[in-house]
Structure formats: structure tokens, C-alpha cells
Specification:
This protein is α/β, with parallel strands linked by helices. Helices cover 40% and strands 21% of the residues.
């Protein structure tokens, strides 16, 4: 690794559920020169009634982005020294004895996990044991239910596997030939133990899975290895080191939160909204289980106690549906339409089961409102406003839960990620949560990815120091709470909707 230098050049590969990009960063004396060199769409492909990721396209785009980034940094006179990859959580691939991927990874929104949580609870292991062993929230998309489904539906495929690799681990393997996993991504699976930072032998045994396929788990910042000669030849790289950063994208985003105290809350805002706090040890109690909170791996020896909330997925799917209807609203137009719509007209629970799958999202939002006895949002702007206000109110609800289980006051909510470009959501989050919102940086995930590379290389000494550098350079925006009484009244209505529980009837036409 490189020590004692003032300038460091690296690449950050950030793969999200709807898009991916490769970022070039040159870091010098506390200043990040971060540039996007390649961006590409990502999403599921349907094949034989199963929703997969197009892994070949992903791998080709990663290589193309690395090729561009390495060439650009070399031309500027500061050759690439390292790279890091972060991805969404839970999804995985199986490697056969010959080192080949046995099948494309299945998308976490595939229907194979429908009802699988209940099957696992009934046939394999009760939920109380799972939570006590992992501290991870119950979501049907979790790896534990995906692999339980695979074992039942395709036992021959599982029997062929020599290695189980989560998404960033797959890319590390293709780049370096090295097998391993990293703790922040492993912690999303509901198959690892937060006390031992290793796989849960108890759960693996109860599920009847082969223990030998699960690789060793390493902490964030571990060196995975140098790129293979074949990869180097294909993309024009030199002796570039691959660092297993905080490979879960939310863990990387939280690493870049520009906080200067310990009692802050963070909200990583994108396809998903991830709202939580940093704690020094996992909080595994009856109450955190009841509230379905999760304890996932973080950086600097901490854990991320958080709640997954369906985020801008609701608007991404709405936008896609309107485009199918020949109404190609831009994001700016959607925000303007929401601002002009009547306030507090109707609300949804963003995490209701009927919003999980792709399809006619506006139709399902209207059906939800109809079923709950609320006014139905007839215009597109009313739908967008309903989503944004409901997200802000769900954030308020989760902030209150976090306060109850930790005692933390969380006077500041740090919002990071691409979703903060929606200033309505930032302001309404401040209003609903009755807290100051500090918005920025937009590129938190890439910056956090870079941050771990800098610490691993010895360029910076700690995450707090890098957070201070980000505070100085990120162009943060401040949103102060307002309209307290109006939002409190809205929150009372919203809590009533949450207390009514999950509906399933509006899953009609959910798989277009």
C-alpha cells in the first residue's frame, strides 16, 4: 500500500438497484476531486418467469468504467492506485468448482421469496432465534429467504456450488481471482452474527445449507488483491489494488455523513430510504425486533441501527408507468406538480406489501387510499405529493422509534444521496421530523467508498477526519423545520393508517 503521500488517485465503483457508475477521485490535502467517468442503467430482466440481474452487462460496464477512469487518471499524470466496489445488499451468485458463475444472480424483487419467510419460520427456525442470532430486520428480500427458496426449488444448483458470493464479492473475484466476503455486505443477509462478525453456523445448520460455500468475512478496508493480468490487459490498468471497502452501498454512504457529533441520525436517500443511527454495539432486544429494526455492519467499529424504508422506488415506478401512458414527466416537472397539489390530501404506508413489486404504482397508490377510506389522488401531481409527504411522515415515525430504543435525541438529520436533489423531500422531512436537516453530499456513497480506500492506504488516519474534510467541501444545505402544527395533525392521521396493518389486495397488476 502507499504511505506518506499527499496526493492519492483511486476509482469508486458504485452499483445501485437502478443505475451504476464509476467515479474517479484524486484526493489531495483534504480536497476531493470527484468526477463521474461512466454511468449506466441497471435493472431486472425477466427470463423463464424469474427476475434476474443482467450480470454480463453489469460486468462489462464495470470494466468499461474502470478502463475510462484508469485512462483519464493516467493522462492527468496520477495513475490509479486502488479501486473499491460497493453494491446493494442481499443478492448473490454461486460459483462452481471450475470458477464459473452457475447462473445470473436473481433480483431481490423476484417473487421466489413470496411467503418464504413464513415457510422458514414454520419449517426451519423460528423468527425469535433468527433475530437473536443476527439482529437483522425481517424482509422477504433478505438473503436467508432467497437461499431457502433456492434450496427448495433448485437443490441441484445449490449442490453444484463451490462458493457463495454476494454481489461485491463476485466482482472482487472476477477482478482478482480471490475469494472472500466483507462484513458490511455480509451483515445484510440475516445469515451473519454481529457479535462474532462471522457467518451464523447455527442458522446455516438449521437451514440445511453447506457451510463450506460461505467464504471468510473480512472487515471493511481489507485488501482483496491486485487485478488479474487478464483484467489489467483488457482495461489498460497497471498494478491497481482492489480494496474491499464498506461494500454495502449504505455503509459507504454513512461513512461519508459529514457529522461532527455522535448523536446524529442519517438518511441515505435513493431507491431505498435507509434511516438510522450509529451505535457501538448491536441493539438486539424484544423491542427492536418488534419494531423490525436492523443492526448492520458499519465503519470504524460501529453498527448501523436502522430501518429500511421504501424510498424513491415509489416515484421511479410511477414515472415509468406515466411514460408507458405517454406522459414523460421529468423529475423537475414531478416536483413542481407535487408542490402545486393540495397538502395532506392522503397518505400511504410506503412499506405496505402492495408496493414491493414493479408495475402500475400510481394505480396501487390510488387503490391503497381507496381501501383506507381516504380521498383518492386523481392527478399525477397529487400522487407525487402523496408519496413525498408519506415518506417524510414515515421518517418521523422511525425517528421516534429510534429515540425510544436508544434514548438518543438526534437533533440533526443528515440526508445524503441522490434523493436530496428533491428539495421538497428535504424540507418536508425537516418539517415532519421537527429537526434540522443537513442535506449533502449527493455523492455520499462514492465519497464513503473513497474514504475507506484512503484509510486503508494510510493516506488519512480516521473516518472522523475524512468526515471533517467532507464538511468543509461538500456544499451542504440546511433545512429548518416549519409548520409544526400542520405536520403534527398530519402525523396523527398517518399513524392511524400505519396501525391498520398491511393490505395485499392492491397487488393487482403488480408485475407488468
Amino acid at each position: 500500500m502507499a504511505y506518506g503521500v499527499t496526493k492519492y488517485s483511486c476509482l469508486a465503483v458504485d452499483l445501485g438497484a437502478s443505475s451504476g457508475r464509476v467515479m474517479s477521485c484524486v484526493y489531495e490535502n483534504g480536497v476531493f476531486d470527484l468526477r463521474e467517468v461512466h454511468r449506466f442503467p441497471n435493472g431486472g430482466i425477466m427470463r423463464n418467469d424469474t427476475l434476474y440481474w443482467d450480470f454480463t452487462a453489469l460486468w462489462n460496464n464495470v470494466k468499461e468504467g474502470l478502463r475510462k477512469g484508469i485512462a483519464e487518471q493516467k493522462a492527468a499524470g496520477h495513475p490509479t492506485q486502488s479501486l473499491g466496489i460497493d453494491t446493494w445488499g442481499n443478492d448473490f451468485g454461486l460459483i462452481g468448482p471450475a470458477g464459473k458463475l452457475l447462473d445470473d444472480p436473481v433480483h431481490y424483487r423476484d417473487k421466489r421469496t413470496d411467503g418464504m419467510m413464513e415457510t422458514v419460520f414454520r419449517e426451519d427456525v423460528p423468527p425469535e432465534i433468527i433475530f437473536r442470532e443476527t439482529g437483522v430486520q425481517f424482509m422477504q428480500l433478505n438473503t436467508i429467504y432467497q437461499i431457502a427458496s433456492l434450496k427448495r426449488a433448485k437443490p441441484d444448483l445449490l449442490a453444484q456450488a463451490a462458493q457463495f458470493l454476494l454481489m461485491p464479492d463476485l466482482f472482487h473475484f472476477l477482478l482478482t481471482g480471490q475469494i472472500g466476503s466483507e462484513y458490511t455486505i455480509a451483515s445484510t443477509t440475516q445469515l451473519s452474527n454481529p457479535h462474532t462478525h462471522s457467518w451464523s453456523d447455527l442458522l446455516i445448520s438449521k437451514l440445511g445449507l453447506p457451510r463450506s460455500i460461505f467464504p471468510q468475512i473480512n472487515p471493511p478496508g481489507s485488501l482483496r488483491g491486485r487485478m488479474l493480468p487478464a483484467v489489467t490487459s483488457a482495461i489498460g490498468g497497471g498494478a491497481v489494488e482492489v480494496i474491499a471497502v464498506a461494500t454495502h452501498d449504505t455503509a459507504s454512504a454513512v461513512a461519508a455523513v459529514p457529522a461532527d457529533t455522535d448523536d446524529f441520525a442519517y438518511l441515505s436517500c435513493g431507491t431505498w430510504s435507509l434511516l438510522g443511527v450509529e451505535v457501538r454495539k448491536p441493539v438486539i432486544t424484544d423491542e427492536t425486533m418488534r419494531q423490525n429494526l436492523t443492526n448492520e455492519g458499519g465503519v470504524d467499529g460501529c453498527f448501523r441501527l436502522l430501518k429500511n424504508i421504501a424510498g424513491l422506488w415509489l416515484l421511479q415506478e410511477s414515472k415509468a408507468e406515466w411514460e408507458r401512458q405517454n406522459k414523460p414527466h421529468t423529475w423537475a416537472q414531478m416536483t413542481a406538480m407535487a408542490a402545486a397539489a393540495p397538502p395532506f390530501h392522503c397518505f400511504i404506508d410506503p412499506d405496505d406489501a402492495c408496493f414491493v413489486l414493479p408495475g402500475d404504482m400510481p394505480g396501487r397508490i390510488r387503490e391503497f387510499c381507496r381501501e383506507t377510506g381516504q380521498p383518492v389522488p386523481e392527478t399525477d401531481g397529487a400522487v407525487v405529493r402523496c408519496v413525498l409527504e408519506s415518506l417524510a411522515l414515515k421518517y418521523r415515525h422511525v425517528m421516534n422509534v429510534l429515540h425510544q430504543v436508544t434514548g438518543m435525541k438526534m437533533p440533526i438529520l443528515h440526508m445524503v444521496g441522490g434523493g436530496i436533489q428533491n428539495t421538497l423531500l428535504c424540507q418536508w422531512s425537516a418539517d415532519a421530523c421537527e429537526r434540522v436537516v443537513v442535506a449533502g453530499p449527493i455523492e455520499a456513497t462514492a465519497l464513503g467508498n473513497v474514504a475507506i480506500q484512503l484509510v486503508a492506504a494510510g493516506i488519512e488516519t480516521s473516518i472522523p477526519k475524512i468526515r471533517a474534510a467532507i464538511r468543509e467541501s461538500a456544499g451542504l444545505r440546511i433545512f429548518k423545520p416549519s409548520r409544526k402544527q400542520a405536520w403534527q395533525k398530519a402525523a396523527q392521521r398517518f399513524e392511524t393508517i400505519l396501525s391498520n396493518g398491511t393490505r395485499n389486495s392492491c397487488r393487482v397488476n403488480s408485475s407488468s
